[in-house]
Write a structure and sequence with these properties.
CATH superfamily of the largest domain: FAD/NAD(P)-binding domain
Largest sheet: 7 strands, mixed
Structural class: alpha+beta
CATH architecture of the largest domain: 3-Layer(bba) Sandwich
CATH topology of the largest domain: FAD/NAD(P)-binding domain
Low-confidence stretches: none
Distance between the termini: 15 Å
Helix content: 25-40%
Bound molecules: flavin-adenine dinucleotide
Oligomer: single chain
Number of strands: 20
């Protein structure tokens, strides 16, 4: 009978295994990973640079201590984002793997776990090709985002079977699809502000680069807004999404009245044609689209535009409204919103309140953070907490 079986071999699982073994070297631990190697998703994070955490996280210092103890040197950028000094995600994976080996933690890769059954003095863990018994089990299978890295939501099924509640899941940190056809804007990137409204009420404003793709809008500011596209229990997808609206401000430093004055002034410039009115303000495909939205024809003298038309163009520059159709889905999502209900977990130890000896860590729990290292921080922090707790049972 093992002391601890860890289901999943990602960021939080490795942090938990190393912490538990460090705290209690006598523990017998086995990590069961579905993929053929540990930390596949971790190696792809932060565009291969691995944004480990963020200085704004109140527990970042605990994570940094952990990294330092296993020889991962870090540095943070001006936005507080913490990276390995080498900016190489695979160095982080390698450092964790070295520690796993050093602590003689057993690892079985290509071993997807199918079921966890409570038995009289622990659990029986059934995986492809075998079964093992353990006094404690840590479920660290991640979420449903980016299933190409092994995370297809298996852990939720196993947790539900053990009696846990899984809150409604949604792909987060991904692009937002619009009902309007925006294919002509593919490749356009602009700095601006994006506002997300629900039933006409502002939910959140985000500033940054807005990127247009064939059928969606992306960029970090949009990814962060995608976290809020949550549906109520029982609400249909189309009905739920139709309540959201995206509004884009392409001149955030300017007040609406100033934008109108700016446009009026530009109309007076010698030889100014309508299609040049937004030249040097937004990229040409976007300029042409905005002109079309307000019914301004190209090839006309800008001086001939009526005040009403200029007002409408100003309003579109300050708030182009787009209807939300949905998000780009699980494949491109970086995180899962929703998960194991937090009220069913004793958070200081990450132990289930319903099934003693069952622990959770990482993205599987009902937590999601914005871009910037907050999701990996959750993985490390909850993994370290679970590892410490289980080591002293
Ligand atoms: C492209 C991309 C970039 C990202 N960049 C960042 C970033 O820079 N900063 C940041 O903070 N966050 C980032 N994230 C999010 C972050 O990677 C995750 O939140 C984090 O890895 C979650 O850690 P975890 O340990 O809970 O799960 P994971 O790291 O996802 O690991 C879960 C593991 O469980 C395994 N598994 C699943 N089911 C089974 C099963 N049945 N049996 C056995 N094993 C199983 C999976 O194969 C996987 O290896 C990114 C995500 C993606 C997709």
């Amino acid at each position: 009978m093992l002391d601890l079986c860890i289901v999943g071999g990602g960021a939080s699982a490795m942090a938990a295994a190393i912490t538990a073994a460090g705290e209690n070297p006598k523990m017998s631990i086995c990590v069961l990973e579905k993929k053929d190697s540990l930390g596949k998703k971790l190696a792809a994070t932060g565009n291969g640079k691995c944004n480990l955490s963020n200085m704004a996280c109140h527990n970042a210092s605990g994570t940094l201590e952990f990294f330092s103890s296993i020889g991962i040197l870090t540095r943070s950028d001006e936005q507080g984002r913490i990276y390995p000094y080498s900016q190489q995600a695979r160095d982080v994976v390698r450092s964790l793997e070295l520690q796993i080996k050093e602590h003689s933690i057993q690892v079985k890769t290509s071993s997807p776990v199918q079921e966890i059954k409570p038995v009289c003095d622990g659990f029986s863990v059934i995986f492809r090709g075998g079964r093992l018994n353990a006094k404690n089990v840590l479920l660290a299978t991640g979420g449903k985002a980016a299933p190409q890295f092994g995370t297809s939501g298996d852990g939720y099924v196993m947790a539900k079977k053990l009696g846990h509640t899984v809150t409604r899941l949604a792909p987060a940190l991904t692009g937002i699809e619009t009902a309007e056809d925006i294919a002509e804007l593919k490749g356009v990137r602009v700095k601006g502000c994006a506002f997300l409204q629900k039933d006409g009420q502002l939910l959140r404003k985000e500033t940054g680069e807005i990127q247009f793709t064939e059928d969606s809008i992306s960029g970090i500011c949009i990814f962060n807004l995608s976290r809020l596209l949550r549906l109520r229990e029982g609400e249909s997808f189309a009905e739920g999404m139709s309540r959201f609206q995206l509004s884009l401000d392409f001149l955030p430093e300017w007040e609406s009245v100033e934008v109108i004055e700016l446009l009026k002034g530009r109309c007076k410039i010698l030889g100014m044609k309508t299609e040049e009115l937004l030249l040097s303000i937004v990229p040409k495909p976007l300029a042409l689209r905005l002109l079309r939205e307000v019914g301004i024809e190209t090839g006309l003298e800008a001086a001939e535009l009526t005040g009403e038309r200029i007002g409408r163009l100003g309003a579109y520059l300050k708030g182009w409204k787009l209807s939300v159709k949905g998000t780009r889905g699980w494949k491109t999502a970086q995180c899962t919103a929703g998960g194991i209900a937090l009220e069913e977990i004793h958070l200081p130890a990450m132990e289930s309140k319903l099934v003693p000896g069952l622990y959770f860590s990482g993205e599987i729990i009902d937590f999601d953070g914005p871009c910037g290292g907050f999701n990996l921080q959750n993985a490390w922090e909850t993994g370290i907490r679970a590892g410490k707790a289980v080591a002293h049972v």
